[in-house]
Structure formats: structure tokens, C-alpha cells
Design a protein that fits this description.
The protein is mostly helical. The protein folds into two domains: 35-92, no CATH class; 96-128, no CATH class. The chain is built from five helices and no strands.
Length: 128
């Protein structure tokens, strides 16, 4: 936690920072509403089956390898769509717990051999 003096300096520095005029803001693409095709339908079925297995306490319904492939593919397609200009959260608001987010984010960082510090640096550089 920052000291009150440091927090005040940060607020002052932020207030003095030049802001881009609204017209200069990059235009965001609207989230493309893909038609419910076979792949989308299959993904929804798999997600429902996994959710049901959690409720039933059957955590081994999906193998570790299959789960890793699903998470990796979802991360790659999310990244590609965001880099293409779409702006949406990877999961619906309040659809998973803070613990789910923290455990998954920690695992993703560990898998890529990254630290939280590096995530913070990247976020400050890119504004994401």
C-alpha cells in the first residue's frame, strides 16, 4: 500500500499528464456477433458438461491435457480478437469467483514463466 504522500504525488502526476482529445482516441471495433455455428455450439456444450461435472464433484471428467489445450486455445483466440480491436471481457462479469481468477491467472503466469511484476509493467506500457 502506498504512503499518503506518494499517493498524492501519483494523483497530481496523473492530473498533469497530457490527455488525448476524444477525437484522437482509437476507434474500437464493435464486438463481432459471430453466428452460432457448429464450433460455438460445441464449445457451449463442452462448457456446460464441465460445469455440471464440477457441481457433481467429478473433477476428472476432462483430462489434464485436454483442459490445458482448451485453456490455451481460449487464451489465443481471446488475444487475437483483442489485438484485432475488439473489446470484451474473457468471461461474463461476475460469472466466476475472485479465487477462480486468481488461481487461473497465477497458473497462466507460471506457465509462461512470468511474474506479477512483469504483468504490471506490461499493463503500464500497453494501457491494457
Amino acid at each position: 500500500m502506498s504512503s499518503p504522500k506518494r499517493a498524492a504525488k501519483t494523483v497530481i502526476k496523473t492530473a498533469k499528464a497530457p490527455r488525448r482529445p476524444a477525437a484522437a482516441q482509437p476507434a474500437l471495433k464493435a464486438v463481432a456477433r459471430a453466428p452460432d455455428n457448429a464450433v460455438s455450439a460445441d464449445a457451449k456444450k463442452v462448457a456446460s458438461a464441465i460445469e455440471r461435472s464440477i457441481v457433481d464433484g467429478k473433477l476428472d471428467l476432462i483430462s489434464v491435457e485436454a483442459l490445458q489445450k482448451l485453456v490455451a486455445a481460449a487464451a489465443r483466440v481471446y488475444t487475437a480478437r483483442v489485438e484485432a480491436g475488439e473489446r470484451f471481457n474473457p468471461v461474463p462479469h461476475n460469472s466466476i469467483s475472485a479465487t477462480d481468477v486468481m488461481v487461473t491467472a497465477s497458473g497462466l503466469l507460471r506457465a509462461a514463466d512470468l511474474a506479477v511484476f512483469e504483468l504490471g509493467m506490461w499493463q503500464s506500457w500497453t494501457g491494457r
